[in-house]
Amino acid sequence: MLIQAIGAVLPAALAVAISPFPLIGIVLILAGRHGRRNGLLFTVGWIAGLGIAATLVVFVFGGADDPESPSSAIADWGRVLAGVALIVLGVRTWWQRPGVDSETETPRWMASLDDVSASRALILG
Predict the structure, then answer these.
(1) Any alpha helices (H) in the chain, and if so which ranges?
(2) Does residue 75 register a pLDDT over 80?
């Protein structure tokens, strides 16, 4: 039973672990001032955040395999809402993309990571 659960969750966990935002964030933080310290704090914050999220998911969706449980209904509606949100975000991003001839500027969140403080690096993680 546990092996099946791990097998079902492993692809999603791998996608979260290698998603582009934390990778871009850690590269920009490492390249900035105090990169070694801030990079370590960002990593600690990232691992702690994943641990907290995993714990919450286990407690909230622990009974999601039982079709009659409230956790199953929450999981089903969560998937529907997440799908709708991703479709809306994709359409919005598509319509707001820059034209062929226009120059793009660095996003604010990326520019702000250059001189991030230690506490902010931990919180961002």
Answers:
(1) 2-17, 20-31, 35-60, 70-95, 108-111, 118-124
(2) no
Examine the pLDDT at 57 and tell me if it is beyond 70: yes
Supply φ then ψ for residue 49, to 5 degrees. Answer: -65, -40
Ramachandran quadrant class, 105 (left: phi over 0; alpha: psi -120 to 50; beta: rest): beta
Decide if pLDDT at 87 tops 90. yes
Burial (CB count within 10 angstroms: exposed 0-12, middle 13-18, buried 19+), residue 89: exposed
Q: Taking the CA atoms of the chain, what radius of gyration do you get in angstroms?
A: 19
Statement: the pTM of the whole predicted model exceeds 0.70? no
Whether the CB-CB separation of 50 and 43 falls below 8 Å is answered with: no
Q: What is the DSSP letter of 29?
A: H
The token duo for 94 is 């598509």
